[in-house]
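Methods: example folding runs. The two proteins below were folded one after another, and each record is reproduced exactly as written to the output file, sequence line first and structure-token line second.
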Amino acid sequence: MKNDETIRSFDGLMLHAIRIENHPDSNKWMILMHGYHRCAMDLMHLMMEADKRGFNLLAVDQRSSGQSEGTYCGLGWPEHYDLLSWINFLSVLRPQSKIVLYGIDMGANAVMNACGDFLSSNVVCAIEEGGWSDIKKQFVYIAEKESSIPVKPFIPAVNLLVRQCLNYSMNDVSTTRQLSRCRIPMLFLHGADDEIVPMVNVEECSRATHSDTDLVVFSHTGFGGCRYNENYYDVIFKFIDKHI
């Protein structure tokens, strides 16, 4: 059974998600958060695998993506508040649900940031793939990778633009600080050859997390390529089965 669901964000945007409930007798749920400039349907590969394993699904179109409103994406910070709203939505709709959070790329940061805030007791564990440890460092890394001039002197101007468009300061946002307050089990996934979000990010994130953590690095794998490894789904669902 497929349903289109909508909620209002904390700042008034209409947000959309796809709810797939093919297992009405099961309390197992996954909330899926897609990557930068993607949409919920980009995670169809994982949705199909989770469905085969008896999970119901809530696949989110993040702000400014898919059918959700918004002019700008927030690189995982305002999105983590949106995720908290979706968690509350599902916890009220299905009070007995056991919820697994999954996010990739920008969605991974939404998941990690959310795990540092107050979570519904329905959330049992979380999985992130390819997220970054610090938004400002990631911006500098990508900008310098694409440019031949130093970027750091321009950060105050960039941060001013972020404040005007996204209503937060990069100086005030820290994924590792959020993870230091995480109280649920976390699985960190990363590609060893990722040149977009280097390995140091997942190492910093896993070290910052004081809850039960697993770290799996896929060799010969670049950004966004973990799912092409033959044991990818077994890694994910073995971790989930341990905690759900």
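Second run, written to the same file directly after the first:
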Amino acid sequence: LNGLATLVTQGYAAAVPPLRAALEAFRRDDGGSPANDRWLWLACRVAADLWEHEIWDELATSGLRRAREAGALSVFPMSASYRAGVHVHAGEYAEASALLEEAYAVAQATHTALLVQARQMVAAWRGNEAQALELIEAGRPDATARGQGMALSMIECANAVLLNGLGRYDEALAPAQRACAQDDLSLYALSLVELIEAAVRTNRAELAATAFERLSERTRASGTDWALGLEARSRALLTDGPSAEPLYEEAVERLAHGRLAPHLARAQLVYGEWLRRKNRRLDAREQLRVAHDTFSRIGAEGFAERARRELSATGETARRRTDDTRSVLTAQEAQIARLARDGLSNPEIGAQLFISPRTVQYHLHKVFQKLDITS
């Protein structure tokens, strides 16, 4: 509370030290006192706001484990949502989707309100335009009616991610601006990143520069590789001439640290785009090829297609990835299949996912059929 009060009264930079001290206190309390469990969702948001992906991962994993072990159905949906957010920034979209399906099933069964809407963000990163827009359009009026400002910011940020990924920067600009309308904990800075890219690509230099000034205040105060990597990428987009290249290189180097695959691939993508526009086709191919491979592997189809188009412009042909078993199984089927692969019995899987062993058996039967497994 001291850190959050400092954030309001003195600004982000002054709040970083007390908020980091708070996160360390939560990490030390791995046993999970009931009082701290009630605040863990807020600690996860603080970790995200400080660009501390590893701490966010640790806290969310610990909270989710304790919710499962205690059978705390009222806490589980929120814990699963924040854990899903960790997966999104790691490019682990199947895992995020599976957790969100669990969260929504439990929330419906227990009439628990979900405070974090993350399905739009997963769909946006995956680049499924029809599905993402359907979720965005459906979520916006509900969040407005409930007065959920954070949910609205996440929905608009997801819209900007989707459209930037598809290369439709003029359409991404408005939702990116709406996402930045209020300084939401854990969402504001990421929305600024989307706004900067959309503004640069649509020749809105003043808007991009203002957004970058706000972003850099936070990234410098944070000082993590995630923060400074995104700052370098954003500064490079704003920079003309050869001085941009060291910034692109810094972004790639910093984002290679940790589980930040989509952010690393985006840095490689914009670096490759810059190199191609400088007529350095061979150098551009190197960056674009790696970005395309990563986006294809993790299932970020919108960004993968954008990278493929850029590669084609250099004279190299990249194959579109065909659908594989990632899209054959539903998110819940994939989750159950992973647990079965790890050696859990049907009752153990059911206990972990809050479903009956008979339901597990039903889903595994469908998995076996879809994957042509006979035993």
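Comment on the second run: Residues 53-70 form the longest helix (18 residues).
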